[in-house]
Amino acid sequence: MQARVVLLPLLLAGAIGAAEARPWLEPDDLRARHSVQWLADRGCFNAPVSTWPLMWADLSPGLDAAATLPECRDSAAWRYLAFERDYQRNHTIQASVTLGGASDEPVFRGFSAAPREEAEASVRLEMSSGRLAMGLTGTWTNDPRDGDSGRVDGSYLAGTAGNWVLGAGAIDRWWGPGWRSSTILSDNARPAPGVWINRRASTPSGWRPASWLGPWNFTAFAGQLERERYVPRTKLIGMRFSFKPWRYMEVGLSRTVQWGGSGRPQGFSSFWEAMIGRDNGQRGPDGDPGNQLGGADVRFGFPVGSTVLGVYGQVTGEDEAGGLPSTYMGLAGIDLGTQLWQGEQRLFVEYTDTTAGAWSHERRPNVGYEHSIYRTGYRFNGRNIASTWESDAQVLSVGVSHFFSGGQEVSVGYDRAKLNRDGTQRPRPASAGIPMLDPIGRQDVDIYSLQYRQPLLRGRLTLSAYYTDKEIRSALDDYSRGTVMALWEFRFD
Questions:
Q1: Which N-terminal stretch is annotated as signal sequence (predicted)?
Q2: With 86 labelled, which of 26, 112, 277, 493 sits at a CA distance of 20 to 30 A?
């Protein structure tokens, strides 16, 4: 799969014409996330914004419409997104180099740019025509835990058919309203290579019975996980439907399925049973066709004077009951966007509990993100595909960001985390694969984080660090209290 992703952009490079070089906004830019949410909560444009990456075809008309409204056009949020949109539009062939390093492999990740390894270097080439976009990214890393020194993460080939985008590659995703994490899909783990389809623009349905949904979006993907796991080459399937029945309300419905893999049934009947949810012991202890997660999220965001206020929640069920998800994990939070001191600010307070059943008073430790057949669990290359906190965690997070008018930004954060609250070391066979970032025993830890970002030499420099009041103990290693990181992206004009 990865070889095909690399070759296709090279074979089709002669078809490049004029369009945005990158057709979407990626989930690695905190300022972009703040800007999109600020404009959406302000009512400056009306589109679902909790399913990343976000298509420029969806955002760009909203930016153009907002340009006619002074309270939108005069915001730093509008100017930043318009700049990024115009950069993509004016550079149909783009090349960039990214260099990153960290004092240790970062244990915790959120919605922001950060290196994944102690040392990494990437080269990226992107091109587009009216209906075709492609990107090729090659990354070298030094002595990574998963053994993949050479990577093509971030590579893709995508084309449009009407209002639909079909693609193949390995791209980061983030589903849900959380700022610190997601309970179903985030960029905590590396992206799995696969194929996908999504709506290009979230225009409302013209069918009267569905018109109440307002603008809506749908995306679905099918990827393949690594060979070095308990069930090698397990397939990962995901679907998400998001819509805005009210200008200041967004709803998302998500589902993911681990299915197939070496030694497992992979025929149509097995796939169909996984899709209809017949995988909770109906076919015996070893007959389940897959491992599923499903749930919903909602966000209310609206203007309050010159500020914007958001309230949000997300629940994800580990099991099924009566055809619906059950034994929920979840998160809830509140955020505030302001315009002070010639800049913009974002404050959020978020609470997460990843113990199965925690949000329905049926706590079931050692169940979340685990499965009796897929014993590597809901992980890819040793990292949780959803929550950076792993399962059985209870975390209170506070974050504050200030975005300067000159392009700089600074963010500080605090997390009060109770990791692996049950204190049980999860038994894993040697064949479970790549060593996991899975806390050993209960660990109550305070985490303090700092990030600074600024434009530098036609690119962006990101400096970040976090400090924990005690070492983080995992099955692989004990991680030191302090981790410092740097990431620099240089764009060739």
A1: 1-21
A2: 112
